[in-house]
Specification:
CATH class of the largest domain: Alpha Beta
Strand order of the largest sheet: 7-8-12-11
Number of domains: 2
Helix content: 25-40%
CATH architecture of the largest domain: 3-Layer(aba) Sandwich
Bound molecules: flavin mononucleotide
Largest sheet: 4 strands, antiparallel
Strand content: 15-25%
Radius of gyration: 26 Å
Length: about 300
C-alpha cells in the first residue's frame, strides 16, 4: 500500500483493456500476504491480478531481490514462457505506458510469420566445418518432440559417421553433389506398422516422420544451421551403408551443416540459393468452406 505500488497498480488497472486487447494478462506480485493484497485491491478498485510471494521465492528467481528487499521489476513473458523484456529498479511514472508500448512491439512482431519458418530454405552451400555431437543431438531432440498419431513416434534416425558417412555419400544422385561437402547427413527411416494405419488409406508413418523433420529444420534454422531434406539417393545403397533393415523405408536424408561458400555450387544452384522463394499462390492449395473453391473466403 505504498504510494509507488498504489500508483503503479492503478496505472496498470487503467491500461488493462489495452493489455487485454493484446491478449496479455497483468499480474502484480508482492511479499504481502493474500489477505492484505485483497484489501489493497478492494480499497483502490484494482483489477489486475495480485499474487502473494511472502517467501520472496519467485522474486529471487527473477533476480528481483536486493539486500533482502524486493526490487520493483517488470517482466514481459510470452506464450512460450520466455522472458522477452524486463526492467529491474522500475520508476513508476509512465511505466505502464512504457510496458504497453514494448508489449505492442513484441506482439506485432510475433504476429508475423515465425522468423525461422520465413528464413528456412533448402540451402545447399554447406561449409565443411564440423557440427558437434551435442548440436546434432539437439536437432534430434527437436525432431523427437514432434507430435505423432497415438504418440507412436514412428521416426528412426541414423546419423552417418566416419565410414558410414563416406558410404552414404556414394549413394547420392549426381544432382546432390553439393551434399558431399556436408559434415553431417542423417537418414530418416520408418515402416508402416510403426504408426497408425487407419481406414481410407491413412498410413501415418510418413506424416509423422515429415513432422519430425519439420521440427528438426526449424530448430536447425534457429541455431544458424542448414538442414536440407533430400530424396535424391539410391535407397538400397543407403540401407547398406547405414545397415538399415530391409523392411524399412528410407524416407529422406537430411543434410546438415553451417552456411558455406555459394561459389562452390553449380550456376543453377547458386541462383537458387538466394533467389526468390517460389510457391504456388496460397489460393491454389488452401480453400475456404469447400475443397477446390477458388475465391478467398472469410470463414463465415
Ligand atoms: C522430400 C523432399 C525431397 C527433396 N529432395 C531434394 C533433393 O534430392 N535435392 C535437392 O537439392 N533438394 C531437395 N529438396 C529440397 C526442395 O527442392 C526444396 O525444399 C523446395 O524446392 C522448396 O525450396 P525451399 O525449401 O528453399 O523453400 C527436397 C525437399 C523435400 C521436402
Amino acid at each position: 500500500m505504498t504510494q509507488g505500488c498504489t500508483r503503479e497498480d492503478q496505472d496498470f488497472t487503467r491500461r488493462l483493456p489495452d493489455f487485454a486487447a493484446l491478449r496479455a494478462k497483468v499480474a502484480g506480485i508482492s511479499p504481502d500476504p493474500p489477505e492484505r493484497l485483497a484489501k489493497f485491491r478492494e480499497r483502490y478498485g484494482l483489477r489486475i491480478t495480485l499474487l502473494a510471494d511472502p517467501e520472496l521465492e519467485p522474486a529471487a528467481a527473477y533476480g528481483a531481490v536486493k539486500d533482502g528487499k524486493t526490487l520493483r521489476s517488470t517482466f514481459i513473458i510470452d506464450p512460450t514462457w520466455t522472458i522477452r523484456w524486463y526492467e529491474r529498479g522500475v520508476k513508476v511514472p509512465r511505466h505502464a505506458e512504457q510496458v504497453l508500448s514494448v508489449l505492442r512491439e513484441i506482439v506485432t512482431a510475433d504476429r508475423e510469420l515465425d522468423p525461422a519458418i520465413r528464413f528456412r530454405r533448402a540451402y545447399r552451400a554447406t561449409a565443411d566445418e564440423p557440427v558437434d555431437k551435442a548440436t546434432v543431438e539437439r536437432l534430434l531432440q527437436a525432431a523427437h518432440l514432434s507430435p505423432s498419431c497415438f504418440n507412436n513416434q514412428p521416426w528412426r534416425f541414423v546419423v552417418a559417421e566416419g565410414e558410414s558417412l563416406t558410404a552414404l555419400k556414394e549413394a547420392l544422385t549426381g544432382g546432390n553433389y553439393w551434399a558431399k561437402r556436408a559434415p553431417v547427413i542423417l537418414a530418416v527411416a520408418s515402416k508402416p506398422d510403426l504408426d497408425c494405419r487407419l481406414a481410407g488409406g491413412r498410413d501415418y508413418f510418413l506424416f509423422g516422420c515429415g513432422m519430425a523433420v519439420g521440427n528438426l529444420m526449424i530448430q536447425a534454422t534457429r541455431m544458424g544451421l542448414i538442414a536440407h531434406p533430400i530424396a535424391g539417393f539410391d535407397p538400397e545403397k543407403v540401407k547398406e551403408a547405414l545397415r538399415i533393415l530391409e523392411e524399412y523405408v528410407v524416407i529422406a536424408l537430411v543434410v546438415v551443416g553451417y552456411h558455406g561458400d555459394p561459389n562452390l555450387l553449380s550456376d543453377k544452384h547458386k541462383t537458387l540459393e538466394y533467389g526468390p522463394r517460389e510457391r504456388k499462390p496460397l489460393a491454389e492449395v488452401a480453400f475456404w468452406r469447400y475443397f477446390g473453391t477458388k475465391e478467398a473466403g472469410n470463414g463465415k
